[in-house]
Structure formats: C-alpha cells, structure tokens
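Tokens for chain A. Residues wanted.
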C-alpha cells in the first residue's frame, strides 16, 4: 500500500506573486521622536533576507528575524536603519553610546 497523498493529483505548489508595494514589507506608520517625524515599518521574518546592524544595541540582526525599519521623514529612504523591535521601543530609555577601550570591562 502506498502512503496517503496530502494534495489532490495535479496540484502544483507555486508561490503567490506579490504586487509591488504589497504586504511583503508591512504597513508604514509615522512616529514622532526627538522632535522629528519618523516613518516606521515592521518587517516580518520572511522578508528579512540580509544581515543588518541595529543602531540601538550595535548587535547584528540575522536573516529571518522580524525587526523594525525606521527613517526620518525628511531624509531619503536610503538613510533607513534596521532596529530590533525591543531596541526601537526602548530608544527613549537608552543613554548615549559610550565607546570603551578593548581592555575595559563589559558590564
């Protein structure tokens, strides 16, 4: 006896074609931070295909991890930055980034 088929015969597995500007990148919203308007877009794990560096914690965002893309409204889209969601939400609670020497303790 052969194993049961989960799909009807003749069924093709194809990926839907997304229209330009569709739901691939999520919805944009506008937030005010430090007196500027910021465009904020949620990126799902399926759309995150490259490595990025989070400006909030200076750690890498690997591919496949959901995150936030934000840029100032008055700047071009090329100046957008990719943030961890938690880092974007905590941006007001963070202090200025302190540059330490290599021999300084990390705490």
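Reply:
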């Amino acid at each position: 006896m052969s194993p049961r088929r989960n799909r009807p015969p003749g069924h093709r597995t194809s990926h839907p074609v997304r229209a330009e500007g569709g739901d691939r990148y999520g919805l944009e919203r506008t937030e005010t931070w430090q007196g500027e308007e910021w465009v904020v877009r949620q990126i799902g794990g399926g759309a995150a295909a490259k490595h990025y560096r989070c400006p909030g914690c200076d750690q890498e965002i690997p591919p496949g991890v959901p995150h936030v893309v934000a840029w100032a409204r008055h700047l071009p889209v090329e100046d957008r930055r990719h943030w961890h969601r938690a880092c974007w939400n905590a941006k007001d609670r963070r202090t200025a980034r302190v540059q330490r020497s290599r021999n300084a303790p990390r705490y």
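Strands lie at 28-33, 36-43, 52-53, 60-61, 67-72, 81-83. The two ends are 63 Å apart (CA to CA).
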